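Per your request, structure below.
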């Protein structure tokens, strides 16, 4: 199984991503447009593979993340 870095905007639903050193499956992604004082943000809703808990995360869009 190979892991690679990808930008947040390239991720898709049902793919896997590592958030806070925990592998997770993406349930939903919402992208916001850049505003007057900031850049675009992505809101990820994920489920941990080991604990099965839902996690929500808001990440700036140009950030890179480890995904498969």
């Amino acid at each position: 199984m190979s892991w690679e870095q990808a930008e947040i905007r390239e991720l898709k639903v049902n793919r896997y991503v590592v958030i806070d050193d925990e592998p997770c499956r993406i349930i939903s992604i919402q992208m916001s447009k850049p505003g007057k004082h900031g850049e675009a943000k992505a809101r990820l809703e994920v489920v941990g593979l080991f604990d099965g808990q839902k996690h929500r995360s808001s990440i700036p869009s140009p950030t890179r993340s480890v995904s498969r």
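The CA atoms of residues 14 and 22 lie 16 Å apart.

Regards,
D.
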